[in-house]
Structure formats: C-alpha cells, structure tokens
Design goal:
Blueprint lengths: L3 H13 L5 H19 L6 E2 L1 H10 L3 H20 L2 H6 L4 H24 L12 H17 L5 H17 L17 H35 L8 H17 L5 E2 L2 H9 L6 H16 L4 H5 L4 H16 L8 H16 L2 H20 L8
Antiparallel strand pairs: 1-2
Length: 369
C-alpha cells in the first residue's frame, strides 16, 4: 500500500477536476502492478506521471489531451526500451548523479506531503481538517510509520483511512465500473499534449522511473534487483500508457520513491504489487461509478504521513556515497533539481562530471629535460 500517498491525490484530482473516468484511471495502474509482479517478481511500484499530472491538473486539461499525452509517452518509452537505448544511456550516469535524482524525489515527496495538510487540494476540501489538526496528525503518522516500518504499519494506516472514508462518504458509494471512452484526437490536441505534457515529463521519467528505480532495486535486493533494468522498466510502463491513452485514463510510470516506500514498509516480493494491482482492478471494476466521491473523503494526514516517511527514507539513500566529490554532485543535482529543474540539474551535473573525468585521464605534462 506504500504508493497511496502519491497515487490517491493525483488520481482524485484527475477524476474530480479533469473529468476522467475512475475506472479508466485505476484500471491501467492495476494492470501495470500485476504486470510488474509477473515480470520483476519484486515490489516495483506504479505511480502517476507526476509532472504530467500536475500540469494537467493546473491547466484543467481535458481527457483528450491527457489521453494523447499518455499515448505519446507510451510510444516513446516503449520504443526506447525495446531498442535497448535506455540501458546504453544509463551507463553514462554515475551513482552520485542518480543519488541526486533520488534526493530530488525525496524532497518533492516532503513538499507534496506538506501541501496536503497545509493547502489541501480542492477535491478534498469537503472533508479536509484544518491545518491545526491535520499537521499534528500527519506528524504522528510520520513518526508511527517510520518507527514501525519493519511491521505492516502501512496496511493498518490505510485500513483506518478506508474506515474513515466509508463513514464519511459511504452513502455516495455506487457499484459497477464507470464508463470508458475512446479519445478524440486531432493534430491540435496531439501538439498540445506533446509540448505541454510530454516534453516536461520525459527527463523525469528517464531519470526517476528508469535510472533511479533500477538503482534502488539493486541497493535493496542485490542480485535479484538485476531484473529491474532501465530499458525493461521503460517497456512495462510504456506499454501501460498505450492502454491508459486508449481508454482516456491516467498515465502511469514506475518510481524510485515508490520502491523505497514499498521496501521500507516490508514488501520483499512480487506479492506486494500483485495484491495492490488486484485491489485497484477490483475498485476500478466494482466501485468505479462512485469512487470519485469516496476517495475525496480519505484522510489527508494519513496520506501525508506515509508520503513523508517515504520521502525521508528515499533521501537516506545518499548514505552510501563516499568522498566529498560524490556528495557535492549528489547535493548539487538534488537541490537544483528540487528548487529549479531536474533536467537542468542533470545536464549540468553530467557535463561537470565527465568534464572532470576527461581532465583526470589526460596524460600529465612532464617537465622538459
């Protein structure tokens, strides 16, 4: 259940604010979870495309633009993954830069968690607590989740949240799936989707969904993590986005932060994504018609606390770095990526790293005899 902190707020906003079908939002995510369980046999996460989703929500884009963006992401990453180009590109990224990406993601998780309780999304406003209550409850959830992360605490927290949700909004429940619709695409829609949604998302998906997720899998699972390669990750989430686009649903990806969250809260095998996928598919098919109203009642302090815990643990991945140079590069990419732009941070970081490597490998000048 470790991905709910990222999945639920973006999914609810897209359903309530952008008019997406709840079944179309949850079904591709559930099927990708099941696929991840079968392909990787490890707790590989599934999350919404965060930059893509945030822009779509902020600009109020409709289902057609979102579907076009999902289809484009699917084609791009499925092609790059199947051709092996991402695995080749991954070799140029040293560990300190990958740790910098993970630091950026951890900081973003903390920022999102803070926003959930201090400035709740409009879709949650009916049931949201005031900051005076929400902040202490979120902090308590963070402390509890961090202290008991070796136990199934996330299951217990989500169960509490589900009970609260049913009590607050159970009367709005409706059974059966919500309608699925094919997107209506034209040149203007595709151009808008590519320039506004896809271009900002591509670097983040490459760095976090592919490189950083594969690295986190090796850190946590050793030799077993070798199954989680950048090109393979691009192939699985690229395929899922073709489905998401075809049914006008929510585009999805993998993510290193989700990997940390799953591992931190006890997941060790493909059973975790299999269970989560089964749950999402059941909700999509069985309760999709009334899910928009139900999800808006899920208590935000629980989401924020779980998400903040994942953020802290993700930041702690930098602990394995050695030497001032490695730390300097990781901090540079992490802070610049968080404050400014991850693409810019990675571009500068790569140029500086390989520029310095080139100078180190130049033959030293010998004094003239």
């Amino acid at each position: 259940m470790a991905d709910v902190g990222v999945l639920v707020p973006i999914a609810v906003a897209l359903i309530v604010g952008n008019g997406l079908s709840a079944t179309a939002v949850l079904l591709p995510a559930g099927l990708l979870y099941v696929t991840a369980a079968w392909v990787y046999r490890l707790p590989v996460p599934v999350q919404p495309l965060k930059a893509f989703g945030a822009i779509a929500i902020a600009k109020g884009l409709g289902s057609d633009e979102i579907a076009a963006g999902a289809l484009l992401m699917g084609v791009i990453f499925l092609t790059l993954g199947r051709l092996g180009l991402l695995d080749l590109a991954a070799r140029t990224f040293p560990r300190p830069l990958i740790r910098g990406v993970q630091l950026t993601v951890g900081l973003l998780f903390l920022k999102i968690a803070w926003g959930l309780v201090t400035d709740p999304p409009k879709s949650f406003s009916e049931h949201a607590l005031s900051a005076g209550w929400a902040l202490p409850l979120a902090l308590f959830t963070l402390v509890l989740a961090f202290a008991l992360r070796d136990y199934p605490i996330t299951l217990a927290l989500v169960a509490v949240g589900a009970i609260v949700t049913v009590v607050l909004a159970g009367g709005d429940a409706a059974f059966g799936p919500s309608a699925l619709t094919l997107p209506s695409l034209d040149t203007a829609t595709i151009v808008t989707a590519f320039t506004v949604l896809v271009v900002p998302q591509i670097p983040l998906s490459f760095a976090n969904s592919c490189l950083a997720t594969a690295d986190a899998a090796k850190v946590y699972f050793g030799e077993e993590g070798s199954r989680v390669r950048p090109g393979r990750l691009a192939t699985t989430f690229g395929s899922a986005n073709l489905l998401a686009g075809a049914v006008s649903g929510m585009p999805v990806c993998h993510g290193a932060g989700g990997m940390t969250a799953h591992y931190a809260f006890g997941a060790r095998t493909g059973g975790a994504p299999l269970a989560m996928g089964g749950l999402l598919i059941t909700l999509a098919v069985g309760l999709g018609a009334g899910l928009a109203e139900l999800l808006t009642a899920f208590p935000l302090p629980i989401l924020a606390g779980v998400l903040a815990t994942a953020g802290v643990l993700h930041i702690l991945l930098v602990r394995d770095l050695r030497g001032a140079r490695a730390w300097a590069f990781a901090l540079f990419v992490g802070i610049v990526g968080f404050e400014l732009n991850l693409t810019v941070a990675l571009g500068i970081g790569l140029a500086l790293w390989w520029g310095a490597e080139g100078l180190r490998r130049l033959p030293r000048l010998r004094p003239a005899a």
